[in-house]
Design a protein that fits this description.
Chain lengths: ~250, ~270
């Protein structure tokens, strides 16, 4: 049973089509990685799927209770402290202040955000800390679906791994489904059940590969070899590391 | 956490008081120039600062004078509140609706272009010698300032934050209250400070011309009596009232709203 279904979705900015004929579905508890070269419309797709934008064509069906989202940039409120930023979704849903703070502190703990920094403003935080605040904000309302748009790009290698493990654990514990945009195939192969490759020009989904085993149970070696075989032998991944081809052309 | 917030607030107050010293130094310089002018031109044209302060003391020792100062302040603050509300609401409407903005722009240019004195004359004809004259003149003179500040604030808001809020399920009202108004506040406070100053100036001017008492009325009387010290003393009282409102209300609220901006400033250059 799918909790998110996109049927023939298309989108255009000012008459320029960037997405067309997208069909995809995410099953309950499934983590789907979405990869594709820069500028092929991944962020647009996630925004449409999360309801931030209305699609110009097609339909989005959602069968989950609540979603959270991590954007490509941190998108924090500059005037609010880290704690208030994390609690923002709870404020929208009208929760009381005291309970909000308590839940936000718990969420901060889950992303290894230091309690002592919770009173600081975004300008006083490093890029990685800001991104962790954004991740905590996505988790705070205990959603059963999560949208991730290249969430770990600003983090260093060790922290990135830790955050990936956190997503893997959280998705198993809370049993949330996720659509995870990334351009890092290793990351995709670590955390996802399935990898979708978006067409270079956003014309539909070019193809998909199901990954063996459960996320979190895969050996680093196996992950590495899977990715190598994708890159060397699989035509589906040929354009993955291209830059925006439409801009170059 | 709460304790930290209060020590932060205390620190800001401390810095604020400390900056009062440099303000005092600048005022002393002005007093010195004033004294110099007095010594060159004599008592009749420009009374000494000390004489003026003494005249002020004499005025303030009379309870009736306090009523006069309060009357003017009340009119100024009334006009200020009305024009802040009108300007802010119109600014919000214009910021969120481009069509309203296009219609409002030329109107604002016209309103700001007409000198306040012209409005006073018109208001006197319409309302006679009443409070209404003063308040309406303030409304016309200072609401465009607030309007421009707010409309500017709305149009420069960060749309990516709007998208973020939408992703977390915020409807238009929640987005307005948690993002829009908060962003507008940053543009609103400078405009409010200017419009409060305008309100006091216009109030005194309208009182003087419309002959409705208050500080303006006292100034008119001082002029009739050629009482330069008295006139200067009343001017100083008007300025003192303005400063009391600005630093007692507008600035503390503003610094509370702009803590995050202060946090971005490195140590040693906090103002
Ligand atoms: N707000 C916008 N207005 C106009 N064009 C846009 C807008 N946002 C994106 N685009 C265009 O749509 C295309 C897809 O953008 P999108 O951000 O979805 O790409 P992406 O796959 O997320 O790229 P990246 O991997 O670099 O984040 C790009 O060519 C971009 O120029
Ligand atoms: Mg993107």
């Amino acid at each position: 049973m799918s909790v998110l279904q996109l049927r023939d979705v298309g989108h255009s900015y000012f008459g320029r089509t960037v997405l067309d004929g997208i069909d995809l579905s995410v099953a309950r508890g499934e983590v789907v990685a979405l990869v594709g070269p820069s500028g092929c419309g991944k962020s647009t797709l996630v925004h449409v799927a999360a309801g931030v934008m209305e699609p110009r064509r097609g339909r989005v069906e959602r069968a989950y209770a609540r979603h959270g989202m991590v954007f490509q940039g941190p998108r924090l409120l500059p005037w609010a402290t880290a704690l208030d930023n994390i609690a923002y979704p709870l404020r929208i849903s009208g929760m009381r202040r005291g309970e909000r703070a308590q839940r936000a502190r718990a969420a901060a703990e889950r992303v290894a955000f230091d309690r002592a920094d919770l009173g600081k403003f975004p300008v006083e935080l490093s890029g990685g800390m800001q991104q962790r605040v954004a991740i905590a904000r996505a988790l705070v309302a205990e959603p059963d679906f999560l949208f991730f748009d290249e969430p770990f790009t600003a983090l260093d290698a060790a922290l990135k791994r830790r955050m990936q493990d956190l997503v893997i654990d959280a998705s198993r514990a809370a049993h949330f489904a996720a659509l995870f945009v990334t351009h890092d195939l290793i990351e995709a192969a670590r955390i996802a059940h399935r990898i979708l490759v978006l067409d270079v020009a956003g014309r539909g989904v070019a193809g998909e590969r199901r990954l063996d085993g459960e996320p979190g149970a895969r050996e680093d070696r196996a992950v590495f070899e899977t990715v190598q075989s994708f890159l060397k032998g699989d035509p589906l991944f040929r354009h993955i590391h291209d830059v925006d081809e439409r801009r170059v052309a | 956490m709460i304790a930290a917030a209060w020590t932060g607030r205390l620190g800001r107050t401390g810095r604020f008081l400390w900056s009062a010293w440099s303000g005092l130094a600048a005022l002393s310089l002005l007093a010195a120039l004033w004294q110099f002018g007095h010594e060159v031109y004599g008592d009749f044209i420009l009374p000494a600062p000390l004489a003026t302060v003494r005249a002020m003391g004499a005025i303030l020792s009379d309870p009736k004078s306090w009523d006069i100062a309060v009357l003017t302040s009340r009119r100024a603050v009334e006009g200020f509140v009305v024009s802040a509300l009108a300007g802010a609401l119109a600014g919000l409407a214009a910021g969120y609706s481009p069509a309203t903005m296009r219609a409002a722009r030329p109107l604002v240019t016209v309103l700001l272009g007409v000198p306040p004195i012209a409005w006073i004359v018109l208001a006197m004809i319409w309302f006679g010698s009443t409070d209404g004259t003063v308040v309406v003149t303030i409304l016309i003179a200072s609401s465009p300032l607030v309007f421009v500040g707010v409309a500017e604030g709305v149009t420069t808001r960060d749309r990516s934050l709007d998208d973020m809020a939408r992703a977390f399920g915020a409807g238009p009202v929640k987005r307005l209250t948690t993002l829009g108004l908060r962003h507008v506040a940053a543009h609103l406070f400078p405009a409010l400070a200017i419009s409060l100053g305008t309100a006091f100036k216009v109030a005194v001017m309208a009182e003087l011309l419309a002959n409705v008492g208050g500080i303006g009325g006292e100034l008119a009387r001082a002029r009739a009596n050629l009482d330069v010290a008295g006139a200067l003393a009343w001017v100083m009282i008007a300025v003192a009232a303005l400063i009391a409102f600005e630093y007692g209300i507008v600035h503390p609220v503003r610094s509370e709203f702009e803590r995050w901006r202060a946090a971005a400033v490195p140590w040693g250059v906090k103002r």
